[in-house]
Amino acid sequence: MEAKFPSETAGKSIRCKAAVCRRAGEPLLIEEIEVAPPKAGEVRIKILCTSLCHTDISFWKSESEPFSFFPRIFGHEAAGIVESVGEDVEEVKVGDLVLPVVQRNCGECRDCKFKGNSCTKFATEFPHAMPSDGTSRFLDKNGQPLHHFIWVSSFAEYTVVDMAHLVKISPEVPVDKACLLSCGVTTGVGATMKAAQVEEGSTVAIFGLGTVGLAVAEGARIRGASKIIGIDKNPDKFEIGKMFGVTDFVNPTSCGKDLVKRVIQEMTDGGADYCFECVGSTSLMKDAFDSSRPGCGKTVILGMDMHGSPLSIHPFEILTGRCIVGAIYGGVKSKQDIPILVEKYLQKELNLDGFITHEIKFKDINKAFDLLLEGKSLRCIIWMDK
């Protein structure tokens, strides 16, 4: 895919539409905004399509610091094309197909060069603004600044992203499928490759079969896991899960007197080799850990508990060999690993199509919130120009 932009827009502000959230929990309003040109190291993107993630919902609901910044432009899972670049940007050019990503990857700092995916390019975090200087690139129709959302803000026809938060991908990928690799699917599939390093023949238990949980199942399938157990209160998730490799299903509400951990232990001859918590519940994190295999079981936390509830584990359980790790973005280094996932999709090894359950126009963006809140969708693609 290639797009041409009139040269007169480079270096100048662009007026466009955005879905603005004025107050926590309120419907988004389609407003005209002004998007500033990119500064050094930044890129301005024309968003082609975006989707809604549970992280957007969590922050949209929140009225407490440090999560509550309003008015704000949400959205962080998207695909777009480069409209213009700031100084010192050489990695992409106008017309390139790109994915904005929350987890930055500058490729130059110590952390990017070694283990983990925690980029330390910027000394201070500004989740509500540009990471380089803590200022906004958005103004509303009255000239007032609008807050960014975790360095992406894709619920706008144009956005500005630091190059550390941007990945160039093959134009062969349909943009709606590419969009999914911007966050949720990459988190789940990536966790099986990076954070857990699931081996062929191993057993996997997944707590929560939303998009991330199903992506874990897809990743475990690709890695050759022998048994993939999905744990969810919604019985409909088993049939959905089968499309992504789930072999067994456990409904916690139907376990009777048996604890979930005992059911998992019986199904896996002592405990699952790998457990993934994909909801963001401290109690489920404990269940996942307790369901892992003594001596070598590994529990990967992918969900975020917005309440900050403490997780209590007896030191002896760690001493015996079990371990528990957290993994932002599945442990993926975006610039290195997303192109690998793109290639797997192009080679028909990775199922992306099954995650798309709905498609809507940008003007109907609030319907995406309703669908996700009602549990009716995995990913709803929001088209900017349709």
Automatic annotation (TrEMBL):
One Gene Ontology molecular-function label: metal ion binding
Alcohol dehydrogenase-like N-terminal domain span: 40-170
InterPro entries, alphabetized: ADH-like_C (IPR013149), ADH-like_N (IPR013154), ADH_Zn_CS (IPR002328), GroES-like_sf (IPR011032), NAD(P)-bd_dom_sf (IPR036291)
Residues covered by the Alcohol dehydrogenase-like C-terminal domain: 212-341
Cofactor: Zn(2+)
One Pfam match: ADH_zinc_N
Keywords: Metal-binding, NAD, Oxidoreductase, Zinc
Highest taxon above the source species: Eukaryota
Subunit relationships: Homodimer.
Family: Belongs to the zinc-containing alcohol dehydrogenase family. Class-III subfamily.
Protein name: Alcohol dehydrogenase
Species assigned in the record: Cinchona calisaya
